[in-house]
Write a structure and sequence with these properties.
By secondary structure, the chain is an alpha/beta fold. The chain contains nine helices and eleven strands. It has two domains: 11-78 and 192-256, Rossmann fold; 92-189, Eukaryotic phosphomannomutase, cap domain (Hypothetical Protein, Haloacid Dehalogenase-like Hydrolase, Chain: A, domain 2). 35% of the residues lie in helices and 19% in strands.
Length: 257
């Protein structure tokens, strides 16, 4: 995609990545969605907000994603680019301190070691710049194994119970948890949810800011930004739902032209 020449676009459409622009975990964006985004960007500004690393976002959305989107927010906005220009970053470790961070990781690993799950693989804790991604059965799993854990978790509440244990063990850390995806959850400083990305925007520059996401319920990683007073939230159930919403927007803009 090429950057539009229009500078009068005062509507911004922000998209979640996993479960919104692409199916959860390990899948790249479809050509259909890319083409719709390209058409949409001719009329409005677009951006993505993901909880994962920038490296993963570029793999999912394409190596030119920093040029294809006006706003690129990885790790909930702790790693950010606006019109391809990087912004300063912060760090979870710097915020809470190395010793506190080690205590947190040690607790997580001990807790997971004591869990009796149908399977366990590898990469139970993934450090990112602004958060920890915690995966009780391990991130190195097949799509079928992820689906099995998701079903098991709905019955046994593995993730929600672990989140409660973390809240009880570390009440002074001022960290919050949000479930995103099928097998893991994120832990990050309060306020470093996806609304963190809004710190990089001047809200008055826009007449409308829309956000599309799938995990909009309480405890989901889209909840806070979905309910932000400056945001018009739209819940979707997957990329097909997102595509239909974009098509509806395009039809609306054509009628109003």
């Amino acid at each position: 995609m090429t950057k539009p020449t229009s500078t009068s676009r005062r509507t911004l459409i922000l998209f979640d990545v996993d479960g919104t622009l692409v199916p959860p975990r390990g899948v790249q964006i479809s050509s259909e969605t890319l083409n719709l985004l390209k058409r949409l960007r001719e009329t409005v500004q677009i951006g993505f907000i993901g909880g994962s690393t920038l490296k993963k976002a570029l793999w999912q959305l394409g190596n030119t994603a920093l040029e294809d989107f006006d706003y690129a927010f990885a790790e909930c906005g702790v790693v950010s680019y606006i019109h391809g220009v990087p912004l300063p970053t912060e760090s979870l470790v710097n915020l809470i301190g190395e010793n506190n961070y080690k205590s947190l990781v040690n607790f997580i690993l001990h807790y997971i070691a004591d869990l009796d799950l149908p399977i366990k693989r590898g990469t139970f804790v993934e450090f990112r710049q602004g958060l920890l991604n915690i995966c009780p059965q391990g991130r190195n799993t097949t799509p079928e194994e992820q689906q099995r854990f998701e079903a098991y978790d709905k019955i046994h509440n593995i993730r929600s119970n672990m989140i409660q244990a973390l809240k009880t063990a570390f009440p002074t850390y001022n960290l919050v948890c949000a479930i995103g995806g099928r097998t893991s959850f994120d832990m990050f400083p309060r306020g470093w949810d996806k609304t963190y990305a809004l710190r990089h925007l001047d809200i008055s520059d826009f007449d409308e800011i829309h956000y599309l996401g799938d995990k909009t319920e309480l405890g989901g990683n889209d909840y806070e930004i979905f309910h932000h007073p400056a945001i018009r939230g739209q819940q979707v159930k997957g990329p097909d739902d997102t595509n239909q919403f974009i098509i509806q927007l395009l039809d609306t803009y054509m009628i109003n032209q």
